[in-house]
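Here comes an entry:

___
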Amino acid sequence: MIEKEEIHAAEILTEQFIHDHVFLYVSRGAIQCYDGNKNCTFKAGEYCIARKNRLARYKIESGKDEFEPVIFCFDEAFLKTRWEKNKKTTIKFRSPDTFVKIKPNKLISDFIFCLNPYSDSSGKNEITFENGKYEELLIILLKNQPELAGILFDFGVPEKINLEEFMNRNFYFNVSIGRFAFLTGRSLSTFKRDFKTLFNDTPNHWLVQKRLQEAYFLIDKKKKKPSEIYLDLGFEALSHFSYAFKKQFKLTPTGLAGLKKTTTVKRGTKKTN
Protein backbone atom coordinates (compact mmCIF):
# COMPACT_ATOMS: atom_id res chain seq x y z
CA MET A 1 0.00 0.00 0.00
CA ILE A 2 1.29 3.44 -0.90
CA GLU A 3 0.41 6.14 1.55
CA LYS A 4 0.80 9.88 1.64
CA GLU A 5 -0.05 11.00 5.17
CA GLU A 6 -0.32 14.14 7.23
CA ILE A 7 0.48 13.91 10.94
CA HIS A 8 0.12 16.66 13.53
CA ALA A 9 3.44 18.07 14.68
CA ALA A 10 2.82 17.69 18.40
CA GLU A 11 1.97 14.02 18.04
CA ILE A 12 4.60 11.51 19.13
CA LEU A 13 3.97 8.43 17.03
CA THR A 14 3.63 5.21 18.97
CA GLU A 15 6.85 3.23 18.94
CA GLN A 16 6.54 0.18 16.78
CA PHE A 17 7.98 -2.96 15.34
CA ILE A 18 8.85 -2.45 11.67
CA HIS A 19 7.19 -5.39 9.90
CA ASP A 20 8.37 -4.68 6.35
CA HIS A 21 11.10 -2.65 4.71
CA VAL A 22 9.75 0.89 4.38
CA PHE A 23 10.78 3.65 1.98
CA LEU A 24 10.14 7.03 3.61
CA TYR A 25 10.27 10.31 1.69
CA VAL A 26 9.65 13.57 3.57
CA SER A 27 7.72 15.95 1.32
CA ARG A 28 7.22 18.62 3.99
CA GLY A 29 8.40 19.15 7.55
CA ALA A 30 10.84 16.97 9.49
CA ILE A 31 10.78 13.76 11.51
CA GLN A 32 13.15 12.32 14.12
CA CYS A 33 13.58 8.55 14.11
CA TYR A 34 15.10 6.54 16.97
CA ASP A 35 15.87 2.82 17.07
CA GLY A 36 17.12 2.43 20.64
CA ASN A 37 20.69 3.19 19.64
CA LYS A 38 20.77 6.10 17.21
CA ASN A 39 18.74 9.21 16.37
CA CYS A 40 18.25 10.25 12.76
CA THR A 41 16.42 13.33 11.51
CA PHE A 42 14.96 13.55 8.03
CA LYS A 43 13.90 16.89 6.57
CA ALA A 44 11.93 17.89 3.47
CA GLY A 45 13.46 16.34 0.35
CA GLU A 46 15.32 13.61 2.29
CA TYR A 47 14.53 9.90 2.24
CA CYS A 48 15.58 6.57 3.69
CA ILE A 49 14.88 2.86 3.98
CA ALA A 50 13.63 1.75 7.41
CA ARG A 51 14.66 -1.87 7.81
CA LYS A 52 12.26 -4.62 8.82
CA ASN A 53 12.48 -6.56 12.09
CA ARG A 54 13.63 -3.49 14.03
CA LEU A 55 12.13 -1.35 16.79
CA ALA A 56 11.54 2.34 16.11
CA ARG A 57 10.14 5.48 17.65
CA TYR A 58 9.21 8.66 15.78
CA LYS A 59 8.75 12.30 16.70
CA ILE A 60 7.49 14.99 14.35
CA GLU A 61 9.78 18.02 14.54
CA SER A 62 7.99 20.40 12.17
CA GLY A 63 5.07 22.71 12.96
CA LYS A 64 1.46 21.63 13.22
CA ASP A 65 0.03 20.21 9.98
CA GLU A 66 3.36 20.76 8.24
CA PHE A 67 4.57 17.17 8.12
CA GLU A 68 3.82 15.19 4.97
CA PRO A 69 5.58 11.90 4.19
CA VAL A 70 5.30 9.52 1.25
CA ILE A 71 5.56 5.91 2.41
CA PHE A 72 6.09 2.69 0.44
CA CYS A 73 5.97 -0.59 2.41
CA PHE A 74 7.83 -3.35 0.58
CA ASP A 75 6.26 -6.56 1.85
CA GLU A 76 8.19 -9.80 1.68
CA ALA A 77 5.88 -11.45 -0.86
CA PHE A 78 6.43 -8.63 -3.37
CA LEU A 79 10.21 -8.64 -2.89
CA LYS A 80 10.46 -12.43 -3.16
CA THR A 81 8.61 -12.34 -6.47
CA ARG A 82 11.01 -9.73 -7.86
CA TRP A 83 14.03 -11.63 -6.54
CA GLU A 84 12.84 -14.87 -8.18
CA LYS A 85 12.49 -13.08 -11.51
CA ASN A 86 15.97 -11.56 -11.39
CA LYS A 87 18.06 -13.85 -9.22
CA LYS A 88 21.45 -12.33 -8.54
CA THR A 89 24.09 -12.83 -5.90
CA THR A 90 23.48 -10.24 -3.21
CA ILE A 91 26.21 -8.89 -0.96
CA LYS A 92 25.40 -8.72 2.76
CA PHE A 93 24.67 -5.13 3.77
CA ARG A 94 27.25 -4.21 6.41
CA SER A 95 25.76 -1.19 8.14
CA PRO A 96 23.82 -1.95 11.37
CA ASP A 97 21.68 1.19 10.98
CA THR A 98 17.92 0.79 11.13
CA PHE A 99 17.34 3.92 9.05
CA VAL A 100 19.50 3.77 5.93
CA LYS A 101 19.87 7.12 4.23
CA ILE A 102 19.51 7.05 0.46
CA LYS A 103 21.96 8.97 -1.71
CA PRO A 104 20.35 12.05 -3.36
CA ASN A 105 19.08 11.10 -6.79
CA LYS A 106 17.09 13.08 -9.34
CA LEU A 107 15.22 9.95 -10.43
CA ILE A 108 13.76 9.56 -6.95
CA SER A 109 12.74 13.22 -6.75
CA ASP A 110 11.11 12.99 -10.18
CA PHE A 111 9.39 9.76 -9.17
CA ILE A 112 7.83 11.37 -6.08
CA PHE A 113 6.77 14.41 -8.10
CA CYS A 114 5.03 12.18 -10.65
CA LEU A 115 2.92 10.53 -7.94
CA ASN A 116 0.79 13.67 -7.50
CA PRO A 117 -1.47 13.12 -10.55
CA TYR A 118 -2.34 9.65 -9.22
CA SER A 119 -3.29 10.82 -5.73
CA ASP A 120 -6.86 11.43 -4.62
CA SER A 121 -7.92 14.30 -2.36
CA SER A 122 -6.75 12.42 0.76
CA GLY A 123 -3.26 11.81 -0.65
CA LYS A 124 -3.85 8.08 -1.27
CA ASN A 125 -2.65 6.74 -4.60
CA GLU A 126 -5.09 4.93 -6.90
CA ILE A 127 -4.97 1.17 -6.38
CA THR A 128 -4.45 0.45 -10.11
CA PHE A 129 -1.04 2.13 -10.04
CA GLU A 130 0.33 0.40 -6.95
CA ASN A 131 2.24 -2.55 -8.41
CA GLY A 132 3.73 -0.53 -11.24
CA LYS A 133 4.91 2.22 -8.91
CA TYR A 134 6.42 -0.25 -6.45
CA GLU A 135 8.30 -1.88 -9.29
CA GLU A 136 9.48 1.46 -10.60
CA LEU A 137 10.72 2.64 -7.21
CA LEU A 138 12.52 -0.66 -6.55
CA ILE A 139 14.37 -0.40 -9.87
CA ILE A 140 15.40 3.19 -9.13
CA LEU A 141 16.65 2.33 -5.63
CA LEU A 142 18.73 -0.63 -6.81
CA LYS A 143 20.15 1.31 -9.76
CA ASN A 144 21.07 4.18 -7.45
CA GLN A 145 22.55 1.94 -4.71
CA PRO A 146 23.00 -1.72 -5.78
CA GLU A 147 24.10 -2.61 -2.24
CA LEU A 148 20.49 -2.06 -1.08
CA ALA A 149 19.77 -5.51 -2.51
CA GLY A 150 21.53 -6.83 0.59
CA ILE A 151 18.72 -5.32 2.66
CA LEU A 152 15.66 -5.68 0.44
CA PHE A 153 16.36 -9.28 -0.59
CA ASP A 154 17.37 -10.54 2.84
CA PHE A 155 14.53 -12.86 3.85
CA GLY A 156 16.10 -14.21 7.04
CA VAL A 157 14.79 -13.83 10.59
CA PRO A 158 16.68 -12.40 13.58
CA GLU A 159 19.43 -14.64 14.90
CA LYS A 160 19.98 -15.40 18.57
CA ILE A 161 21.70 -12.42 20.19
CA ASN A 162 22.90 -11.23 23.61
CA LEU A 163 19.68 -11.00 25.64
CA GLU A 164 21.00 -8.81 28.46
CA GLU A 165 22.46 -6.21 26.11
CA PHE A 166 19.34 -6.07 23.96
CA MET A 167 16.89 -5.73 26.85
CA ASN A 168 18.90 -3.05 28.66
CA ARG A 169 18.98 -1.03 25.44
CA ASN A 170 15.34 -1.51 24.45
CA PHE A 171 13.32 -1.92 27.67
CA TYR A 172 11.32 1.27 27.09
CA PHE A 173 9.82 0.12 23.78
CA ASN A 174 6.18 -0.73 24.37
CA VAL A 175 5.95 -4.00 22.44
CA SER A 176 4.82 -7.48 23.43
CA ILE A 177 7.02 -10.09 25.11
CA GLY A 178 6.55 -12.21 22.01
CA ARG A 179 8.06 -9.43 19.93
CA PHE A 180 11.07 -9.16 22.24
CA ALA A 181 11.49 -12.94 21.94
CA PHE A 182 11.41 -12.81 18.13
CA LEU A 183 13.89 -9.93 17.93
CA THR A 184 16.38 -11.78 20.13
CA GLY A 185 16.13 -14.91 17.99
CA ARG A 186 14.19 -17.03 20.47
CA SER A 187 10.87 -18.80 20.78
CA LEU A 188 8.64 -17.36 23.50
CA SER A 189 9.29 -20.26 25.86
CA THR A 190 13.06 -20.10 25.33
CA PHE A 191 13.02 -16.33 25.82
CA LYS A 192 11.20 -16.65 29.16
CA ARG A 193 13.54 -19.40 30.32
CA ASP A 194 16.68 -17.49 29.31
CA PHE A 195 15.28 -14.31 30.84
CA LYS A 196 14.63 -16.02 34.18
CA THR A 197 18.16 -17.44 34.21
CA LEU A 198 19.73 -14.10 33.40
CA PHE A 199 17.61 -11.64 35.40
CA ASN A 200 15.99 -13.95 37.99
CA ASP A 201 12.65 -12.32 37.13
CA THR A 202 9.78 -12.54 34.67
CA PRO A 203 9.98 -10.30 31.59
CA ASN A 204 6.81 -8.34 32.42
CA HIS A 205 7.81 -7.60 36.03
CA TRP A 206 11.39 -6.73 35.06
CA LEU A 207 10.22 -4.32 32.34
CA VAL A 208 7.94 -2.40 34.71
CA GLN A 209 10.63 -2.18 37.40
CA LYS A 210 13.29 -1.09 34.91
CA ARG A 211 11.04 1.63 33.47
CA LEU A 212 10.08 2.89 36.93
CA GLN A 213 13.71 3.04 38.05
CA GLU A 214 14.57 5.06 34.97
CA ALA A 215 11.60 7.34 35.60
CA TYR A 216 12.75 7.98 39.18
CA PHE A 217 16.23 8.87 37.93
CA LEU A 218 14.92 11.23 35.24
CA ILE A 219 12.60 13.06 37.66
CA ASP A 220 14.99 13.12 40.61
CA LYS A 221 18.29 13.83 38.86
CA LYS A 222 17.40 15.25 35.46
CA LYS A 223 14.46 17.40 36.64
CA LYS A 224 12.13 15.91 34.00
CA LYS A 225 8.38 16.35 34.29
CA PRO A 226 6.31 13.13 34.53
CA SER A 227 4.26 14.23 31.52
CA GLU A 228 7.45 14.51 29.47
CA ILE A 229 8.75 10.98 30.06
CA TYR A 230 5.94 8.47 30.54
CA LEU A 231 5.45 7.78 26.81
CA ASP A 232 9.17 7.51 26.17
CA LEU A 233 9.41 4.91 28.94
CA GLY A 234 6.76 2.63 27.44
CA PHE A 235 3.71 3.64 29.51
CA GLU A 236 0.55 4.14 27.49
CA ALA A 237 -1.18 6.55 29.89
CA LEU A 238 -0.03 9.07 32.48
CA SER A 239 -2.55 7.71 34.98
CA HIS A 240 -1.16 4.17 34.64
CA PHE A 241 2.38 5.49 35.03
CA SER A 242 1.46 7.48 38.15
CA TYR A 243 -0.31 4.49 39.71
CA ALA A 244 2.63 2.13 39.11
CA PHE A 245 5.13 4.74 40.32
CA LYS A 246 3.25 5.35 43.57
CA LYS A 247 2.87 1.64 44.19
CA GLN A 248 6.61 1.20 43.81
CA PHE A 249 7.97 4.30 45.55
CA LYS A 250 5.09 5.27 47.93
CA LEU A 251 4.71 8.70 46.32
CA THR A 252 3.50 9.98 42.97
CA PRO A 253 5.84 11.20 40.21
CA THR A 254 4.60 14.77 40.74
CA GLY A 255 5.12 14.27 44.47
CA LEU A 256 8.77 13.36 43.87
CA ALA A 257 9.22 16.37 41.59
CA GLY A 258 7.62 18.66 44.20
CA LEU A 259 9.68 17.15 47.01
CA LYS A 260 12.86 17.85 45.11
CA LYS A 261 11.87 21.48 44.55
CA THR A 262 10.98 21.96 48.22
CA THR A 263 14.30 20.51 49.36
CA THR A 264 16.19 22.79 47.00
CA VAL A 265 14.36 25.88 48.27
CA LYS A 266 14.96 25.00 51.93
CA ARG A 267 18.66 24.48 51.36
CA GLY A 268 18.99 27.79 49.62
CA THR A 269 17.06 29.78 52.23
CA LYS A 270 19.03 31.94 54.70
CA LYS A 271 17.88 32.86 58.20
CA THR A 272 17.01 36.53 58.76
CA ASN A 273 16.80 38.34 62.09
